[in-house]
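2024-03-11 09:14:02 DEBUG pipeline.ingest accepted 1 chain
2024-03-11 09:14:02 DEBUG pipeline.ingest length=259
2024-03-11 09:14:03 DEBUG pipeline.predict start
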Amino acid sequence: MEFAQHSLLNWHNLLDWALVAILLAIAWRLIRGSLVVYLLVGVIAFNLLFQLAQWLKLPLFSALLGQFVGLGVLALIIVFQPEIRKFLLMIGRNAEPSKLGKLMDSEAYNEEQEQGWIRAVSEACARLSETKTGALIVIARTSELKLFAASGMPVDALVSSDLLEAIFRKESPLHDGAVILAKGRIQAASCVLPLDEHHASPSAVHGMRHKAALGMSEQTDALVVLVSEESGQIVLANNGQFSEPLTPNDLMHRIGKTL
């Protein structure tokens, strides 16, 4: 009986440590490369100092540190608000099937139509890449993007390579901003996107277009296609991460696989 209880205790301990390790790994993935790492080190050091003061039985010092520790949870929520939001978004995305939005939508389009507009996006990006014309194309998945679409000019037109290319030409009044696509249609152009909040991320060495692509993919589950004005490279932002440079054909397959 004692052996069974001892084994059960070990099993629970292993599960406890495994869950803590998973949470720490997720937390590190979210804050890696940002200034939040230094804040986290400071919080940990502060709490260790508080524990040391209690162990040494320093009542006045412990009481002073205790006032700050009592506000620690609230401070962490405020400081780590972007990371907490990103963590909850990650949980929500993994809990929801990627195709749920299409299956539940009465206006869902068929696979042939989907392949058609994806091909149009890749063809437009190919021509924009050749001329080094910068572009941002946001592809909605399950997140509602009406708020972001409202920041630009409504278009409501079928996706076509010629129309996308015309929008991003420098002489076009709509070229400055992002195009938002949903269900095979261009909802709006010249849209304002949220910027990347991780200041030490690779986007910091690029322009605002890179920051906007990462920021949008962090705060929503949308895919963001970026054509660099400097290099002409085509990349895809998803879950706050850039892909490697893609060929137009790679882009088409990557979008179709991710949607």
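2024-03-11 09:14:41 DEBUG pipeline.report Residues 108-258 form a domain with the YojJ-like (1 fold (CATH 3.40.1700.10).
2024-03-11 09:14:41 DEBUG pipeline.predict end
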